[in-house]
Write a structure and sequence with these properties.
By secondary structure, the protein is of the alpha+beta class. The protein folds into two domains: 1-113, 2-Layer Sandwich (BirA Bifunctional Protein, domain 2); 115-157, no CATH class. It is built from four helices and seven strands. It has helices at 2-14, 28-31, 64-72, 116-131; strands spanning 18-19, 25-27, 56-58, 80-89, 101-110, 137-144, 147-155. The strands form three sheets. Strands 1-4-5 form a three-stranded mixed beta sheet, with helices on both faces. A two-stranded antiparallel sheet has the order 2-3. It has a two-stranded antiparallel ribbon with strand order 6-7. It catalyses: tRNA(Phe) + L-phenylalanine + ATP = L-phenylalanyl-tRNA(Phe) + AMP + diphosphate + H(+). Residues 1-155 form the Aminoacyl-transfer RNA synthetases class-II family profile domain.
């Protein structure tokens, strides 16, 4: 896991991204409020999230780093390009495909004239970097309530 994280960090830094990490013990404000996740959303349930207090929890996503960064970034000095790798925690039953603790990496770009073509180009370049240029890569439109637009990536095995 460390090797792929280091490799992806190097890849994105080569494209001008900052690598930013945040606290694993997070404020409810950044983990949910700043992500527009309503108070009654199932993800905020005690059965889904590891709460320490009413206001502190084990982060369930790396997204809080986006909010923290946008609050501090001086956009008069240029665009924002960042990735945020890290460990996240969810109340999942551990089995062959689920774990209560896993690694997540997400990215954010804020600039003028950014389009879906930019996201597509970045995802294709990343997949080719990781899996090789001989793989077939497909992006499928998808719906996720927390991102817009949303796509899923398929990569051929051979």
């Amino acid at each position: 896991i460390t090797q792929i994280i280091d490799d992806l960090e190097g890849f994105f830094m080569g494209m001008g991204y900052q690598v930013l990490t945040g606290p694993e013990v997070e404020e409810d404000h950044y983990n949910f409020e700043m992500m527009n996740i309503p108070k009654d959303h199932p993800a905020r349930d005690m059965q889904e999230t590891f709460y320490i207090t009413n206001e502190l929890l084990m982060r369930s996503q790396t997204s809080p780093m986006q909010a923290r960064t946008m609050e501090k970034h001086d956009f008069t000095k240029g665009p924002l390009k960042m990735i945020s790798p890290g460990v996240v925690y969810r109340r999942d039953d551990d089995d062959a495909t689920h774990s209560h603790q896993f690694h997540q990496m997400e990215g954010l770009v804020i600039d003028k004239h950014i389009t879906m073509a930019d996201l597509k180009g970045t995802l294709l370049a990343m997949c080719q970097h990781v899996f090789g240029k001989d793989r077939t890569i497909r992006l499928r439109p998808s719906y996720f309530p927390f991102t817009e637009p949303s796509v899923e990536v398929d990569v051929s095995c051979f």
